[in-house]
Design a protein that fits this description.
Helices cover 33% and strands 24% of the residues. It contains 7 helices and 8 strands, in the order αααββαααβββαβββ. Strands 2-1-3-4-5-6-8-7 form an 8-stranded mixed β-sheet. Helix 1 packs across helix 4.
């Protein structure tokens, strides 16, 4: 990819930090940590170049999930997934002496200290984009709890012209997990939701009216 000179530094700085950003719980890009006193408008071209070249997949905050998710997107809050999960793994371990095949082998054998949630979520983002979805996420901050009490990894729509519905998706890398956040989201936006999904490393099952599917079934969403 040929990068314009005025954007090159920002693009490379963001690209270098993507594995570290994705390994965090929230995974949101914090621009001040890339460059002090930065703000979203300064990085619009940066995100566009990474997304347009298919190196990265943008995921914007949807502040009020409703008809037309794009109508309520907040571009000041963004997650940036790599467009190729193999590239993410190579980039995350590019300073190690492990050969690429050794990295994959140790991940599969669970012998490498790694945030598997980062890989799972990146893979699902990659699959949803391949299916033609634009990516959105949702969070709700609780003043009482002093933390987010609702966190939805992805929101997609059915793109129907007759009966528009949205579908929240939570990605779980472990076999044991809670569904409280997704249940609270469903309770708040019940009338707007067509169905709820959890993507997990287990077989197909229904849990509290939530359809839980293995990762390979994400291609059907």
């Amino acid at each position: 990819m040929k990068i314009r000179a005025r954007c090159r530094g920002k693009v490379l700085a963001l690209f270098d930090q993507l594995p570290g950003l994705l390994s965090r719980h929230e995974k949101r890009v914090v621009l001040n940590e890339i460059s002090e006193n930065s703000y979203a408008e300064q990085y619009e071209d940066t995100f566009f170049l990474l997304a347009d070249s298919m190196i990265a997949n943008e995921c914007f905050l949807c502040s009020d999930p409703n008809v037309g998710l794009s109508l309520n997107e907040n571009r000041s809050y963004i997650k940036c997934y790599l467009g190729d999960t193999g590239l993410l793994i190579s980039h995350a371990f590019d300073e190690n002496e492990l050969l690429e095949n050794d990295v994959y082998r140790q991940i599969l054998d669970d012998k490498l200290g790694l945030n598997e949630g980062m890989l799972y979520e990146n893979i699902i983002a990659q699959m949803l984009v391949a299916n033609g979805h634009k990516l959105f996420f949702y969070t709700q901050y609780s003043e009482e709890k002093h933390r987010n009490d609702i966190e939805i990894d992805f929101l997609i729509s059915n793109n129907s012209k007759l009966s528009y519905k949205m579908y929240p998706i939570e990605v779980k890398s472990g076999r044991n997990y809670t569904t409280a956040s997704l249940e609270r989201f469903h309770e708040k936006y019940r009338a707007r939701i067509g169905g709820c999904y959890i993507i997990h490393p287990r077989n197909l099952l229904v849990k509290n009216d939530i359809l839980c599917i293995p990762p390979y079934m994400a291609m059907c969403l």
